Amino acid sequence: MAHAEINTDYKTFKGGIHPPYNKELANSKPIEAAPVPGKVIIPLSQHIGAPNSALVAAGDRVEAGQKIGGTDAFVSAPVHSSVSGVVKEVAEMANFTGARVPCVIIEADSEQVPFRAGETKPLDALKAEEIREIAKEAGLVGMGGAAFPTHVKLAPPKDKPVDIVLINACECEPFLTCDHRLMLERPSDLVAGLRLLMAAVGAGRGVIGIEANKPDAIEAVRKVAGDIEVASLPVKYPEGAEKMLISVVAGRKVPPGKLPSEVGALVQNVGTAVALYEAAATGKPLFERVLTVTGPGIRNPKNLLAKIGTPVSTLIEAAGGFVGSPARLIMGGPMTGWTQENLDAPIQKGTSGLVALTEELIGWQEEEECVRCAKCIEACPMFLMPNYIVQAAKRGQWDQAEMYGALDCFECGCCSFTCPSFIPHVKYVRKAKAAIAALKKGVK
Amino acid sequence: MAEKGLAAAIAPHLHSEQTIKRGMTDVLIALIPVVIWGIIAFGINVLLIIVISCLTAVVSEVVMRKILRRKITLRDWSAVLTGLLLALTLPPTVPWWVVVVGSVIAVAIAKELFGGLGRNIFNPALFARVVLLFSPFTIYTTKFVRPFWWKNGGFWTLAQTRIDNSIGGRIVYASWGGSPINTLTTSATPLSLLKSGRMLGTAVTGATPVGANFLTSTGKPTLYSMFLGFKAGAIGEVSVLALLLGGIYLVYRGTIDWRIPVGIIGTVFILTWIGGSSPVYQMLGGGLFLGSFFMATDWVTSPVTRQGKWIYAVGIGVFIAIFRLVSALPEGVAISILYWNVITLLIDRYVARSHFGDATRPVFNRLPKLAARPLPVKKEA
Ligand code: SF4
Ligand code: SF4
């Protein structure tokens, strides 16, 4: 077997920003198991795509790993119980965005019956369809936040063969360290997961892209990578964004509105690759995940392996609670995450962290008039004109909002980060996207 | 159960150190060498003009924003900067009341009446400068004295331009109190020397300094002395060295885009060369560096895209070259920039950015065909 090379030969993408990373708060903390809460709230649909319906009803007994929600639609991912216990009810509860969504609420046994591994085939005997089926049955989704069903990505259109699979191991969001820890603690599982991904799409080349500020992770992965390439990438946000990563590593640009398969690439993040390995090796569906509970407002920052559906409050407590008075608690990373005003919402498959930020760190001020400084334009990695999207959205000129690129925006937040007028571009972009979609639908 | 103190907000939840205040104070810092040189070359008079201009700007801003019921935003330092920039475009002996008029025009009209910072079409300082130029007070804004005139009269003398009606409306210099300063006379600026036709096109490179005023034997300043700042001109335009120091600082800080000054100065250089003038002399004489680094780079009134910036910069350069080579005006920097401030509206409307991965690489913006006409939506407050 060829020896793994660390390829440092990559040039970064144009645009982007350098936020304060603050990874040191949690990057030396080994992954710990979070306590199992008294009850878990499991949203029935945690993916982008068709909604699931409940497969259980109040009073049913469920085991950890049992499927509790699903649908026949292709673009979907089933959900599984993360605990052993009894279904209390199926009801609408607020999720992390504040929207009320159907959830299965399960009272957990005080003595948890652990998940038991099922019969599995040797990994290298698995055929492509089998791997896709495993991914589907395990309810795998992109675990970096977007939560797109993995098996759908593994089934690219026939005329667009995928020849390169990339692992987004950049973890370019500030504060988060869960992928970093996974790479340090379970590098072989990551590599095995990547090999499964490659086998599923028949790709010959696999690359694990890690930002250069994690030399220990690069080294850990390289040792077990075999013929898989480990890429040490320039440190810049959003290096890990799908389109950026593909252009940096493979030199291919995904056209606007198209998927990575258009240019023969597939991107998955570290958590998803590890989860795919687990599903294939032990039959374990995605019902728990590693996430980082961190920030200056957390007493004891940690990387926790937590059951999906655990309420935020349980995890904050597990990390020693708040210190001082944090101004915002963010689910996800600070660049793209959602603020939580209360601690009731459950974590989902796509939840990569909980970050408690203090006012000084946020440094956000009142919105001013745009002074046309062009900083947002220089920072936008999609080469859009964020200032004009905002202007058009304020005036309700949706055709102009589209012209300036509202639909191509993936809401990375670089524009707002650099804006001296503190304009929340993403808010207006979301508005424009909704309006444009409504207009387009209206006439069809 | 809402947790105490946890706010709801939209991502991102971090912000860079960029603020409007940082941008404005950066420019103020960059202008320190220019101001210092202005005071050294033209006496304490200059400091007073600057202070008056800045104070008037601040007062005008507060008054206007009160009248227009806008939030007072003095803390962003933009009013002070406008006041300073205006002062730097005026002659060292401009009467104080002309400064007040100019500063009011800059802030109250060019900035606030146009909608406030961010909505103004013209660079406020330049707008005021050009209005003064075409006003009845033009005489006060176009008479320049030679540097270090105060060596005879004393550094602390407050001199200002006056019209003496007793001797047929001639320009004289007097102290602010009114006592005449006989030692002071109007001096030609490098560019007005060219325009007076005496020396158009004569090679000046290689000339050596003669006498205390760094003049060549033909009466023009040497390139070297023009670079350092030994020439007649507006308060802030005379020392190219000081302007360059400030400009480089701004580029280094990312506050201005290098494309604009490079584009303008480069274009003027090339065109005046082709036009048979001395390009280095054209570059160092007049307000080219002040205009290119500190006026044309104004965030609000310059294009936002890189391509747009190039078009804008080259356009300004072409206009300046035409003014200087063809028209009767010796300068043309201020007017050229103002013209292109307006054209910026078109540039930003039509110059497209090719979005990431867009193989069609559009050069001009075209409205997409949305299925329905956009619904009129109420404006956001
Ligand atoms: S960064 Fe902000 S102020 Fe600057 S152009 Fe963009 S929206 Fe306007
Ligand atoms: S416009 Fe969208 S893609 Fe561009 S920087 Fe802003 S959030 Fe990111």
Please tell me about this protein's structure:
The complex is a heterodimer of chains A (444) and B (381). Chain A has 444 residues and is an alpha/beta fold. Chain A contains 14 helices and 18 strands. In chain A, α5 links the parallel β11 and β12. The longest helix of chain A has 19 residues, at 425-443. The mean pLDDT of chain A is 92. Chain B has a two-stranded antiparallel ribbon with strand order 1-2. In chain B, α1 runs antiparallel to α10 (240-252) and α5 packs across α6 (124-133). The model of chain B is unreliable at 197-214 (pLDDT under 50). Chain B is globular, with a radius of gyration of 23 Å. Chain B is mainly alpha-helical. Classes of the chains: A alpha/beta (444), B mainly alpha (381). The interface between A and B is large, with 85 and 57 residues. Bound molecules: iron/sulfur cluster (2 copies). Residues 379-380, 382, 384, 386, 409-415, 425-426, 429 of chain A line the site of one iron/sulfur cluster.
Question: What is the secondary structure topology, with strand pairs?
Answer:
The complex is a heterodimer of chains A (444) and B (381).
Chain A: E1 6-7, E2 31-33, E3 39-43, E4 53-54, E5 61-62, E6 67-70, E7 79-80, E8 85-94, E9 100-108, H1 128-137, H2 150-153, E10 164-169, H3 178-185, H4 187-201, E11 205-211, H5 215-224, E12 229-233, H6 242-250, E13 265-269, H7 270-282, E14 288-294, E15 302-307, H8 312-318, E16 328-331, E17 338-339, E18 353-357, H9 359-362, H10 375-379, H11 386-395, H12 398-403, H13 414-418, H14 425-443
Helix pairs in contact in A: 1-4, 3-5, 4-5, 4-7, 11-14
Chain B: H1 20-30, H2 32-42, H3 45-67, H4 78-88, H5 96-113, H6 124-133, H7 150-153, E1 159-164, E2 170-175, H8 190-195, H9 223-228, H10 240-252, H11 259-274, H12 279-284, H13 288-295, H14 306-325, H15 333-350
Antiparallel strand pairs in B: 1-2
Bound molecules: iron/sulfur cluster (SF4) (2 copies).
